[in-house]
# Entry
Amino acid sequence: MSRSIFFSMLGGCLFLLATGLMAQTKKPAPAGGGTAASIKRGKPVYLQQCLACHQADGLGVQEMNPPLSKTKFVLGDKVALIKIVLSGMQGVQVEGDDYHGIMAPHPDLTDQEIADVLTFVRNNFGNRATAVLPSQVKAVRATLKPVAK
Amino acid sequence: MRSIVTTVIFFLVGLGAFAGGGGKKGGKHAVRPTDAASQLKLPTGFSAVTVVENFGKTRHIAVAPNGAIFVKLARLKDGKGIYRLEDTNGDGKADKISGFGTFPGTGMAIRDGYLYASSDEEVFRFKLDANNNVVDGDKPEKIVTGLLSRHEHEAKAITLDHSGNLFVNIGAYSNACQLADRQKGSPGQMPCPILDSAGGIWEFKADQPNQTYGTGARYATGLRNVVGFDWNTQTNSLFVMQHGRDQLSSLFPQYWNDKQSAELPAECMYELHKGSNCGWPYIFYDQIQHRQVLGPEYGGDGKKGPDKQYQDPIVAFPGHLAPNGLLFYTGNQFPEKYKNGAFVAFHGSWNRAPEPQAGYFVVFVPFNNGKPSGKWEVFADNFSGGPEKTASGRVDYRPCGLAQGPDGSMYVTDDTKGTIWKISYKK
# Structure
């Protein structure tokens, strides 16, 4: 094997290794990029923040945690929806069923994370609706008083 | 072309019929209909019939000495919250049905000629006549009033001893007494102010009207929420099943992963005496380490024990199974090993996600001389309808209430569709 071929192979391996590492340590997809990118970023936020109560299929838990599928809360007024995430909620009736579970407020999430997770929810579990934008979250957040811990 | 299309359609239809024809012979339907009675998996010699099906949100149940069944509904059905179900021809099915009581709720018990029933704020009783008919369904006596109900653990389960006392669970309106309930980073309150008026069992007189916090007494404390409880006539003491806390991994990912959080903490059976303190919210019982650990809202990390020991459970089950019914079996119909043992109806979990859900069964704990004498075992299974439904939590039925009939049969309710099973044994 000639020296130059060896080095180019080594270089190639290092390149592959480097791109592999970059892919592994890659941050979530950068902000922007339209609805599809927002849905993609929203999924890990859902898994971490929402799944425990609303479940993997978004259908919630009877009597406790409401479903996120095809309800006016998810598909309707975005301002109200953003407020639920920022301020929390307890006691709601969805499609004639009462849900008593408490939802903690999530003011620690960034505008981008809230926009992404809501866009994810609005485009999963049988839902199809327009994206929620970080600017819309920011505007709603500005109207709310900080929540005491 | 047309003939090819026709052939393909015939082929597909044939395939469909073949695929659907695997059930019982002579089935008219492509998909075999669910049979709520035969769906249950029971030990050899036991069989089940359904007393009613699709009846509503049937919660706790009590059976009178003549076999008349009374069931409490969590939501009114045709304006009524209690139903009397009678089987007049002996086939196990209710054929004489009447409703009364205009409040929804959970608790149902019979003692000394009275039917006791609870809403989420009050306990009422109805006089029964010699045939165990309600004397006046429109005018119950209000025994207890003004109990806290804040839309979390609001069900007021009830039971009575044989000395004229009524016990009522007042569940804590909180997960772990954080300043902001279930909010990540919010500290536990010390002392927990909820314990003054909830998070325990309260004792009232069974026959005095209009009692409330001032006239009753806190019998036991440090119990997050109890739905299944029963007076044990052998030990002459109160046994309860606690619903343990939720969300260890989502609130404290630094100490517990999702897998651990699905199993912890234990769902605990306690034998209570006046003054018992089971430690909620300051501790929980870790059934894997077999000890009490300090709650993370109070400085715990999953390893640290508390400075002060609280009462230990007598049985520790896996986490989040949601025990909603407890019955000590005193009948003579079931085999000898069941005598004086405990049946527990587990409603099934939700807080195991993203791990698979579990529960949706009735278990049996053998007892000897008032103490557990062996490991618990699943008695009635497959309420869910199969392993996949169990894992997703999208189940057919969820067991809730338990009662024993005068012939020694056991009744189990389901509060999703409103099924009541009568489980009997024949050698």
About this structure: Chain A has seven helices and two strands. Residues 1-27 of chain A have pLDDT under 50 and may be disordered. The radius of gyration of chain A is 21 Å. Chain A touches chain B through 26 residues (CB under 8 Å).
